[in-house]
Design brief:
The complex is a heterodimer of chains A (about 80) and B (about 290). By secondary structure, chain A is an alpha+beta fold. Chain A has one helix and five strands; from the N terminus they run E-E-E-E-E-H. The two termini of chain A are about 25 Å apart. The chains are: A alpha+beta (about 80), B alpha+beta (about 290). The interface of A and B includes residues 35, 36 and 60 of A.
């Protein structure tokens, strides 16, 4: 079996985002590059102490951005199911 | 990391401000390391002036072997030698230029490239590294700007301002290649941050058919090394004469290729995508 690497584009407020799933065993992480000057970010799903899922930046330090970008990725996958 | 206990008495930590269990904390930290390696090997564009991390081959002392590590592009001089860089703030000042307490502006000092012709001159900041700490910089290709001076329609003379066209340059049939590099370790005197940084050695582009046309403003090119020279540079024991010879290497023009790319390539998601300009003359074959 070969793993399919997801790659897709999103757009928000005129800024294009290129999202690439990173092929990392045991974890789901996405690298997001922006058409603006904003630095690329890697986001991943994590589980907090209350067993709730949340998006985080890898490495630490860009939590707010990770939440925003993660939400867009989640919406993208939900829209693909319909 | 800060340890706390949750209501069940299980040790907890914080990741990115979120309370997580230790096992999840460890998983995320491992993910960080995997992503760091994944990222630096997979980058499409490595810009010098963002002083980012790059993939570098570094010898393992005492062994005929090497590691692939990340180093910061932009050689940070030994803190005991001029310019005296003791802290990250000093370093930013050196790289960007700054005004001192008297309002005097000190222009930036760029240490991205080490000129091969001056590498071993006494008192040069690169000499010790060239003798003792050589490395190879992994590359898939690099970018340079070609300057074309349009002709004045009335007089036929070249105008003073050039049109600039960016080119992507790579080796034919080679996905990766090596550039000669030198490296230096440095520790921030205040924070204790440990950094390994490097400069790429450059040679003249004069007489090189491809690069003398592409980088015609500065006439410089990186010292691209074939496998034999790369081995000698990294793992051999070359004397000063040989070090200079290797650093001065011009990779054969006929084994290189170059094409124009979009002027906004730095912001592009695909910076190496070819882009043709009607007013940019074709490169001349040898």
């Amino acid at each position: 079996m070969e793993k399919t690497i997801a790659s897709f584009e999103l757009e928000l407020n005129g800024v294009k985002m290129n999202v690439v799933e990173l092929n990392i065993p045991g974890s789901t992480a996405f690298k997001v590059s922006f058409s603006s000057d904003r630095k690329p970010i890697v986001v991943a799903r994590a589980t907090n102490a209350d067993a709730a899922r949340f998006w985080t930046s890898i490495p630490e330090g860009r939590q707010k951005e990770a939440e925003g970008v993660g939400k867009l990725i989640e919406e993208y996958f939900k829209s693909q199911r319909h | 990391m800060k340890n706390i206990l949750n209501h069940k008495g299980i040790d907890m930590c914080y990741y990115n401000g979120q309370k997580v269990a230790r096992a999840e904390f460890i998983r995320l930290k491992q993910l960080e390391k995997t992503v760091a390696n994944y990222d630096f090997l997979g980058r499409d564009l490595q810009q010098g002036f963002d002083y980012g991390m790059n993939a570098v081959l570094k010898p393992i002392p005492g062994m005929e072997d090497f590691d692939i590590v990340q180093m910061e592009w932009g050689f940070i001089p030994d803190a005991n030698k001029w310019p005296f860089i003791e802290t990250r703030e000093d370093l930013v000042n050196m790289r960007k230029g700054y005004k001192d307490a008297n309002g005097k502006f000190h222009p930036p000092i760029t240490t991205l490239n080490a000129v091969a012709e001056e590498l071993l001159l006494p008192n040069k900041i690169y000499r010790e590294a060239a003798l003792k700490r050589r490395c190879l910089v992994l590359s898939t290709g690099f970018f340079e700007w070609r300057h074309i001076f349009p002709l004045n329609k009335r007089t036929g003379q070249p105008l003073k301002t050039a049109n600039k066209y960016p080119y992507f340059i790579s080796l034919k049939d080679k996905e990766y290649f090596y550039m000669g590099g030198i490296w230096q370790s440095w520790t921030d005197a205040v924070t204790g941050e440990y950094v390994e940084s490097f400069a790429i050695t450059t040679t003249t582009a004069a007489g090189h058919n491809l690069m003398s046309q592409v980088h015609n403003s500065k006439m410089r090119m990186p010292s691209i090394l074939n496998e034999d020279l790369a081995y000698e540079w990294l793992l051999g024991n070359p004397d000063e004469k040989k070090i200079s010879q290797i650093a001065l290497t011009q990779y054969p023009s006929q084994e290189m290729q170059a094409y124009t790319i979009a002027k906004n390539f730095r912001e592009s998601l695909n910076p190496t995508q070819p882009f043709e300009y009607e007013d940019c003359p074709a490169l001349l074959a040898a």
